[in-house]
Amino acid sequence: MRFEKQNQTHPMTEHDQTILNPEILNTILEHGLEGLPDALSLLINHAMLIERNHHLQSTPYQRHDARTGYANGFKPRSLNTRIGTLDLLVPQTRDITPAFFPSALERGQRSERALTIAIAEPTAGR
Questions:
Q1: 27-109-17 Cα angle (round to 5)
Q2: Residue 93 CB: number of other CB atoms within 10 A?
Q3: CB contact set of 66 (below 8 Å; sequence gap of 6+)
Q4: What does the domain layout of the chain look like in residue ranges?
Q5: Structure confidence at residue 1 (pLDDT)
Q6: Cα–Cα distance between 1 and 26 in angstroms, integer?
Q7: pLDDT in tens, 50-103
Q8: Rounded-to-integer distance, Cα 72 and Cα 66, Å
Q9: Where are the alpha helices (DSSP H) in the chain?
Q10: pLDDT at 44
Q11: Strand partners, 93
């Protein structure tokens, strides 16, 4: 899924959401390659938050007519990969149809296969 910059005025702009979280870089800088599972977990968690905001057409605590539902916390989930187990926090929603589910994950899948497929799909047609 690719996100285009929207022309709407929001307190948190698209640019603010897509800036690389310094915590991800710090994890790699402090722990080297052993920090990759934690850094990848942070990156995927950040991407899922951005995707949820797009699904809701709003950022948390923002109220406007275009909002389609509400953020409703997180559900912990582990994903087994070759670099280690990723501890993810999957964003939840309420009062929205269709229900939100991150494109980086496949329902019921707890392995790297789902992540690999999700990453490969947008680039396969190029």
A1: 45
A2: 19
A3: 8, 57, 58
A4: 14-124
A5: 37
A6: 27
A7: 999 999 988 877 888 888 888 899 999 998 888 889 999 999 999 988 888 998
A8: 18
A9: 14-18, 22-31, 36-56, 112-124
A10: 92
A11: 71
How far, in Å, CA of 73 to CA of 75, rounded? Answer: 7
pLDDT given at position 25 = 85
Give me the residue label for tokens 């280690």: 84
> Which tokens in the block code for residue 14?
């698209």
Q: What is the mean pLDDT of residues 103-121?
A: 66
| Helix (H) and strand (E) counts in the chain | 4, 2
Residues 106 and 44: their CA atoms lie apart, in Å, by 13
Output the CA angle 56-85-106, nearest 5 degrees: 40
pLDDT tens profile 28-51:
889 998 999 999 999 999 999 999
CA geometry: angle at 103 spanning 106 and 71, to 5°?
Answer: 105
Q: Which two tokens stand for residue 10?
A: 């929001």
